[in-house]
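S1.2 Input.
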Amino acid sequence: SRTDLVAALSGLPQFPREPVARLGSPVTVLLREDHTVRHLQEQFRTLEEHPLPVVDKKGRLVGAVGIADLTSVLWRPDTGGKRDLPQTTRALDVRIASFMHRPAVTIGDERNAADAADRMTRAKVSSVFVVEADRPVRVVGQADLLGLVVGAARAQLASSGVQDCYVEITGLRGSSDPGLLADIDHLVAQGLKRIAHHARPILFSLHLSPHATHRTADITVEGRLHTDFGIFYASQSGWNLMAAVSAILEELGGQLRREGESRRKQARSRRRPAADESIDDPDLERRIRAATGDEA
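S1.3 Output.
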């Protein structure tokens, strides 16, 4: 299972030390203690991926709600025995504060992937919240850590080419158009072919995070690309999913192009012969002696 893999890999010295501030996905849904189950109706798909954070009035993390917490409310019997107290509250009206688990499992934004893996293993959870000043900013799951390990391992392979790039797309709803994933995959394949002109792509992770609002259909798309040059990141938000994915691939391609140019420039400067520092300049030497008070 993912839990066993993360537990086994986290203790290895080769486990990636990528900062958690660059892993996982941004927190786009915040729950309050006085919210009810009714507020979670539109978030069932997100709950299948990771718990949702619960914050107080100042935005500080006080707990979390996962699938197990929610099912304890939704699957309870509507009727009981003669000695059971009557239920006066409908399941959809139950306040989140009454069934959330607390405290939420967190990790500081200054920590790295190995720390996150260790935290998950010790707390026996599948994800942790990255906090900054007690406020949840990102959520990192086991899949994020395993993807990072895969990327680090594939970087050591001698093979090359776009056909060796592993692509991971997360965040699509189960009810999405079946052709949408194929369209995204086609767009990603085209983008990776262009990127391959500058560096060898190894692992590309694309995460989709719908915004927590009913008024717009905005979505945040985050891309993380592992290459033989290192790891590169890009993010886009807007209502047009395909445009956001295309913009991310263009941005990543631009980053790699600039990185390649920088490396070539450094290589040329190393090959360039050093200037002759032994050229005599009596006038310069005289001025230096005068400035340092070392005149004969």
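S1.4 Remarks. The first strand starts at residue 25 and ends at 26.
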